Amino acid sequence: MLITLGRHILRYLATIFVASVAVFALMRVVPGDPAAVALGVSATPELIAAKREALGLDQPLIAQYLSWVDGMLRGDFGLSLTSGQDISPLVVDRLQVSLILVGSAMALALAAAIPVGTWVAMRHRRADGIAITALSQVGIAIPSFLAGILLVSLFAVRLGWAPANGWVPPDQGVGAFLQRLVMPVCALAAVQGAIMTRYVRSAVLEILSEDFIRTARAKGLSTWQALLRHGLRNAALPVITVTGVQLASLVIGAVVIEQVFVLPGLGSMLLDAVSTRDLTTVQTIVMVLVLLTLAVNMVVDLIALALDPRTGR
Asked: Where are the transmembrane segments (predicted)?
């Protein structure tokens, strides 16, 4: 078990290394000189050369990469090329917003998808099961940003029940925080809930056809009893795997929702940095998103390994 765990950790450390090299290399092949971008169009060659030296861009690429990684490990993400500010506290603040949004949306999606998907699987030949399955297909087809626009149009513009956009930190008022969080969370959770409902349904249907379920029923258990006692643990493995994949995609997909609801998350910060060609900020945010994605995948793999040690072979 420890050997398997160590192998998983080493694999993800190697993946992080490869990802960091890829992100660093991609930022270096983007056309344009970061020093010239930071100084503007009126900069002289002398000022550009001085700025390159101040940013360390005159160093060999390997030295630049090691300096960047060392700063990331120490929590120092560098200075913004456009504003000259330290981006470390900004990234931390924006990351908190994105994590609250994504975590709440996935928790809500799973809270709805697990019971609904199980119910649909148990009644897949009944009218209500077929209707819910069709409804989940519609939910999958609707983009999250469109769901967000529809929610704003109905609950903010027409009914006036909640603010259309903006963000209030929870320490400045829980009520105002929840009012501004509920619609973006529901917009993300609606699509993810529909997707997860389909996966839960498929996983439960597959388990219901297994021999051990038929054996349990032959011993006198009802279908629900057999599923609850013997089937859910086995059905959880593929659902957890898919949850990890969807959670990773949700981190990236939240970029659009943050724009729709004007939320100060990593996604909006990334788009602002791209529009101003702030390559230092772009490089940092992309790497943070990669680390979040890899961390989610590692946690999912470890949970799957705990549920079924055979997955580590």
From this structure: 12-30, 99-122, 134-157, 177-195, 235-262, 282-307
